Amino acid sequence: MSTAAASPSSRVRDWAESGALALTGRPDGPPVVPPGAAATVARTLAAQITASAALAGRAPEVDGARLLSERAALTGFTRRGDVTLGGSGRLLRTADGWAAVSCARPDDPLLLGALVCADLDPADPWPAVAAWLSTHTGDELTERAEMLGVCASRTGALSEARASESAPLRGTRSVEGLLVVDFGSLWAAPLCAHLLGLAGARVVKVETPSRPDGARRGNRDFYTLMHAGHESVCLDPAVPADRAALAELVAAADIVIEASRPRALAGFGLDAQETAARGATWVSITVGGRASGRVGFGDDIAASAGLVAVDERGPMFVGDAIADPLSGLTAAALACSADAPGRLIDVSMTDVVAGTLTAAADGPAPPTRRQGDRWVVDTAEGEVEVVQPRRRQVPGTAPDLGADTVSVLRSLGIPTAGISTVVAR
Predict the structure, then answer these.
(1) 342 domain-assigned
(2) Hey, how many other C-beta atoms are within 10 angstroms of the C-beta on 160?
(3) 15 has pLDDT over 50
(4) What is the 3-class SS of 2-23, one letter each residue?
(5) Rounded Cα gap, residues 320 and 312, in angstroms
């Protein structure tokens, strides 16, 4: 999304007001203003979603910049420099630069061990990983990481973003009453669904009994924020009746959201191109586009795209998994476009982040400074306070796993005979 009209001062202001600036920097140092215009882009995207809601007489209060940091308002995360806020990722030196590496999944120590050809201590894999990286290039890391399914890449590896479906489409449509089927998990895809729900869509979250959304095990308040007011369906594609119901549910959808590599849902018998061809909107959110095999989390994805803050000690992560909320906002705005029906919208998280980095350097970022008990930053338009992350209040509760399976299927005229029952947990 274009930010050509935004001055350097307004971009700094948007960073300061987003809460993400307060999360960027060393734990023992000041907040550091990040490069680019991610907070400004986020506000532009949110305005497009609000415009869609207004077509149905709705007026959700959504500040896109604030969405970038709201998870940290619930978790209590604070800035940690070259360590992700949640502690599962690191920025480490390579033989020719820097790399972002995540170790958040249960299998990651084993996968990282295969990457560096060593047995790692699951409790502290970082010394061995750092030692290997110090003698290997970022390109070697990126290639091996994609092959092994490791969430890692050299920083700035993909800052030359490809042209993608993340480009703005024409016009805005109302999504009031549209059926959104959300296969996503964690943050980016659920945020997209959440925003469409605020704009008036009916959101049905679909999970399988073997792989429920991992965010259910995380911060409960954040999960509720993303899913309050939605309906929950749980179906097992290995059960014939469930598989048939899954196909009919997708056939009834106006918008489908997913954040899997294409072969995953194809294995369930679902076809994105076919769904778009009948006039629905299929939103696919992936690390590097549907043709890429990369995997990643919001922090390492953003760093790979070039979004890192820098001080004399090296690069630092920006905000909290910032590629996730940026991509969720982008996907929702694109789904609200008048051009969205009949389209497969391919949202590359890497390209979304890279697109927020200004083509021309604005010069050194202004430093933050202490003023009493707060941080401020001086801009050409005046002093701006560096605000802390702030939580939103969303009414309602998030449904338990599979709580609405039968009622949703019946409401759509989908047979329920033979459907497996899943105990909500």
Answers:
(1) no
(2) 10
(3) yes
(4) CCCCCCHHHHHHHHHHHCCHHH
(5) 22
How far is residue 282's CA from residue 279's CA, in Å, rounded to a whole number? 9
Distance separating the N- and C-terminal Cα atoms of the chain: 40
- CA dist., res. 350 & res. 320, Å (int): 15
Tokens coding 29 = 């140092």
Q: Are 296 and 303 in contact (CB under 8 A)?
A: no
User: What is the predicted pLDDT for the residue at 262?
Assistant: 76
Distances (CA, A) of 374 to 184, 369, 370, 371, 382: 38, 8, 6, 5, 16
Whether the full predicted model's pTM is greater than 0.85, yes or no, is: yes
Average pLDDT over residues 132-142: 96
Residue type, 20: A
Q: What tokens were used for 307?
A: 């979004």
| 276 domain-assigned | no
Q: Is 117 exposed, middle or buried (0-12, 13-18, 19+ CB in 10 A)?
A: exposed
The arithmetic mean of pLDDT across residues 136-145, rounded, is: 95
Q: Three-class SS of residue 309? A: strand
Burial class, 305, CB count within 10 angstroms (exposed 0-12 / middle 13-18 / buried 19+): buried
195 pLDDT higher than 60? yes
The C-alpha torsion from 294 through 39 and 1 to 314, rounded to 10°, is: -50
Asked whether residue 162 carries a pLDDT value surpassing 50, the answer given is no
Question: Phi, psi (5° rounding) for residue 362?
Answer: -90, 5
Q: What are phi and psi of 350, to 5 degrees?
A: -60, -45
In this predicted structure, the answer to whether residue 381 has a pLDDT above a threshold of 90 is no
- Let me know: does 213 contact 205? Beta carbons within 8 Å: yes
DSSP secondary structure code for residue 142 in this structure? H
The share of the chain scoring above pLDDT 90, in percent, equals: 80
- Polymer length in residues for the chain: 425
Q: What is the pLDDT of residues 200-209, one digit of tens each?
A: 999 999 999 9
- What whole-number distance in Å separates Cα of residue 367 and Cα of residue 384? 12
Q: pLDDT tens digits, residue range 352-375?
A: 999 999 655 567 889 999 999 999
Q: Is 183 exposed, middle or buried (0-12, 13-18, 19+ CB in 10 A)?
A: buried
Domain of 128?
A: 102-154
Residues 6+ apart with CB under 8 A from 134: 93, 94, 95
**Within a domain: 136:** yes
Helix (H) or strand (E) holding 131: helix 126-133
DSSP string, 214-239: GGGGS-HHHHHHHHTT-EEEE--TTS
Structure tokens at 399: 């449904």
Structural domains in the chain (count): 1
Within a domain: 367: no
